[in-house]
Design brief:
Elements lengths: L1 E6 L3 H12 L4 E5 L25 H14 L3 E4 L2 E5 L5 E5 L3 E9 L3 E3 L15 E2 L2 H4 L7 E5 L3 H10 L5 E6 L8 H8 L4 E5 L1 E8 L3 E8 L5 E5 L2 E4 L3 E3 L29 E3 L11 H23 L1
Parallel strand pairs: 1-2, 1-6, 2-3, 6-17, 8-15, 9-10, 9-15, 10-11
Antiparallel strand pairs: 4-5, 5-6, 7-16, 12-13, 13-14
Amino acid sequence: MYDVLIIGAGPAGLTAGIYAARGGLKTGIIEMGMPGGQAASTEKIENYPGFPEGIGGFELMNKFHQQAEAYGAEFIFDEVQTLELRHDVKKIHTDSRTLESKAVIIAAGSKPRPLNVPGEEKFHGRGVSYCATCDGAFFKGKQVIVVGGGDAALEEGSYLTRFAEKVFIIHRREGFRAAQIAVERAKNNGKIQFVLNSVVEEILGTDHVEGVKIRNVKTDEKTILTADGIFIYVGTEPNDKFLQGEIDVENRGYIITGNLLQTNINGVYAAGDIRDTPLRQVATAVGDGALAAVEVEKYLAELKD
């Protein structure tokens, strides 16, 4: 029996683990992959306070992981399948066991949203990627495409120029959602070419990616752009498959929380990218994790009274 089980070891889950374990709670953190979540696969994080020169995402998340372990949080590497949360004893069923706790923090994060175009699934791992830091080195001296107009697309597009000979950034609009500094950096990079007001309609190839079919949304003109790889950054969607109706979510699947991060079930909180929030950054995830852990402490104290 744990005092609190945390689902997910991204920035929110790790911070919640640090606070809960440091507060003397028997804390378990369930993670199906590598601690750090999407932040760990970010080449460089420049907007997290305390690191004026920026810091590698893996390095920062490794520090979070080490700190949670130092305070006594237990890491359980397994995948959550189903939940039973409506009783005082919460049960989390994973691939290999059933875990019990008095409180739960859901911090399972989000995953890259697919384009959902022909060829995307077929060439996944054969030229289609969602992680420049994971796969960029495979495209040394080649041409690649980045799809998207947010911070991730512009920043990872700039990163890919370390390897690729040419990077095309395809965006469906004229303007960008990314921070101005990321836009200017990309515009000043001679290896980057913008393809604006355009969408990818199909990913082409035989055994691997050889190009894409694109359509100009203003003129409806269709063209073929040759490339060896495509990196997709068109937003995220929640890692929600294990929720199965236990928790109230909004129409995209993100968990609905109150101001203190409580869900519709007593003793169950949500933190970080999986909840309905206007900003998904490491800094906001850290704040969520801290608040959720403190609220768990209060909830458990009230159970004793």
